[in-house]
Write a structure and sequence with these properties.
Elements (H helix, E strand, L loop, with lengths): L2 H15 L18 H6 L3 H14 L7 H12 L12 H11 L9 H21 L12 H7 L6 H11 L8 H22 L9 H9 L2
Length: 216
């Protein structure tokens, strides 16, 4: 490995290792897929109504692909002019499906989609509360408080990494990038806590590392 590569990887590891995992409070994991007959028999009236809407969105297979998710989110976002966005990309939606896909089908079933939908609504509320200037974009100085309220506090170095990856040249983060970022950050923190079992470190072999990072 070259000196530059070692320095780059070492710098990233140092950034992450300076974070206390106990400060992160990720969302509960996506629910496992249940047999449809069992699920329907134990649903509330609200869930039954959501299932009817889901059927209209997903079609007869009752699953949402990344492409279908992209179309759904972009239709919804058009109804919220206060949120600045270029639209959800297919790559962003593939990533969201991957981290919410609890049964590794490559699509979202009813409960996985409902879980994602509820989280997006919650994170939308946080986004709007921290858009203090009403620009529709979370500015650089608004980002720390936004992520902290979501249970994902960032140190200065991790914040810089996220700004480079998800923000525009002025340091602003629009809504689709915010959702894409927070879905992934939340899922990675949840995976870490599951693997660490209360510890501050985890040990992965190459297979586990690739499974964790490549399908996300």
């Amino acid at each position: 490995m070259s000196f530059l590569a070692k320095k780059l990887i070492g710098g990233i590891i140092n950034i992450v290792s300076n974070i206390d995992p106990s400060q992160f409070i990720p969302c509960d994991p996506p629910p496992p897929r249940r047999p449809i007959n069992f699920a329907e028999a134990h649903e509330s009236d609200e869930e039954k109504q959501f299932r009817r809407v889901f059927h209209q969105l997903a079609g007869d297979d009752m699953e949402v692909s990344p492409n279908e998710l992209m179309n759904i989110l972009n239709k919804v976002i058009k109804k919220h002019p206060g949120l600045r966005t270029d639209g959800f990309s297919i790559e962003s939606c593939r990533s969201m499906v991957a981290v919410m896909d609890s049964d590794s089908t490559g699509k979202l079933g009813f409960h996985e989609f409902k879980y994602l939908w509820n989280n997006i609504k919650k994170w939308q509320g946080i986004y709007l509360r921290h858009d203090q200037d009403g620009s529709g974009v979370i500015c650089r100085n608004e980002l720390p408080g936004t992520f902290k309220e979501a249970g994902l506090p960032l140190n200065d170095e991790l914040l810089k990494l996220i700004i480079r990856r998800y923000c525009d040249e002025q340091g602003g983060m629009d809504f689709d990038n915010f959702i894409g970022c927070i879905v992934r950050l939340d899922a990675m923190c949840r995976s870490f806590k599951t693997l660490a079992k209360g510890d501050k470190n985890i040990t992965l072999d190459i297979k586990e590392w690739l499974q964790l990072t490549m399908y996300s």
